[in-house]
């Protein structure tokens, strides 16, 4: 699987101390030779309006916005032009190339008590299970109008958050140690359990290296429900604890 980047732009226009509007725009899946996405301004809205309800930018038919699996960095760039507009840039990880249209959705209304602007990092999720493969990097940017009241930025993914408390500035966290792209055939070691006997360290997958939700299915286990969760890793184990099947579902 090629490691490609998905790009998206979203715009946020704020007026006075109150957040005015939030609308994700100009998202597109990466394509060979495709031009970079172009910024589009959001339509004007009443001064007392907050971010739009619901899940943010619409996705392709049959998909829905869903938080990306992991956010790795948040940056705020202060432009010397246009009155000093601030630009939020976030990067994160998704589980496969089937994700698209990443965007930042503001969930803060007005000026919060802690002065933080809270954003959810979303993308259009796959509609079906995805096979194992390396994580893919996604990024999105969100311009904020000059004169906003925020003292920091907090970006949330499905399973972590990164806060930037100095503006402008940059904050990042380490990505998960294990993307499970090569998990098949290896042996699973649960937290607190002894290492599988006779297996080299490189042939063992440790639960603590998998920070996202797991569904472990052992030979005698039933499956009481099968609700689809695009950020959950399902591992099917043999009697000996070997990973014999796996998928993001």
Structural features:
40% strand, 16 strands, single chain, mainly beta, Trypsin Inhibitor V, Chain A, five-stranded mixed beta sheet, six-stranded mixed beta sheet, disordered N terminus, 2 domains, 249 residues
Which term fits the overall shape? elongated
Q: Unreliable segments (pLDDT under 50, ≥5 consecutive)?
A: 1-59
Number of self-contained structural domains? 2
Count of helix runs:
0
Q: Give the fraction of residues assigned to helices.
A: under 10%
First CA to last CA: what distance? 18 Å
Mean pLDDT: 80
Strand content: 35-45%
The largest pleated sheet is described as:
6 strands, mixed
Kindly state the number of beta strands. Answer: 16
- The Cα radius of gyration reads 20 Å
How do the strands line up in the largest sheet? 2-1-8-5-4-11
Order of helices and strands: EEEEEEEEEEEEEEEE
Structural class: mainly beta
């Amino acid at each position: 699987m090629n490691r490609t980047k998905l790009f998206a732009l979203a715009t946020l226009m704020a007026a006075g101390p109150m957040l005015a509007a939030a609308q994700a725009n100009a998202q597109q899946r990466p394509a060979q030779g495709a031009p970079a996405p172009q910024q589009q301004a959001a339509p004007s809205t009443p001064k007392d309006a907050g971010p739009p309800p619901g899940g943010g930018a619409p996705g392709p038919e049959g998909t829905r916005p869903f938080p990306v699996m992991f956010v790795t960095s948040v940056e705020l760039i202060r432009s010397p032009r246009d009155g000093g507009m601030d630009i939020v840039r976030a990067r994160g990880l998704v589980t496969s190339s089937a994700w698209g249209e990443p965007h930042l959705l503001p969930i803060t209304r007005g000026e919060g008590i802690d002065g933080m602007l809270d954003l959810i990092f979303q993308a259009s999720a796959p509609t079906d299970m995805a096979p194992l493969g390396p994580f893919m990097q996604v990024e999105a940017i969100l311009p904020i109008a000059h004169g906003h009241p925020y003292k920091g930025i907090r970006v949330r993914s499905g399973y972590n958050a990164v806060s930037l408390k100095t503006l402008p500035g940059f904050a990042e966290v380490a990505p998960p140690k294990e993307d499970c792209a090569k998990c098949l055939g290896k042996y699973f070691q649960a937290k607190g359990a002894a290492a599988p006997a006779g297996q080299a360290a490189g042939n063992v997958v440790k639960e603590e290296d998998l920070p996202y939700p797991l569904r472990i299915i052992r030979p005698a286990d039933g499956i009481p429900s099968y609700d689809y969760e695009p950020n959950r890793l399902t591992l099917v184990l043999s009697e000996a604890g070997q990973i014999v099947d796996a998928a993001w579902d």
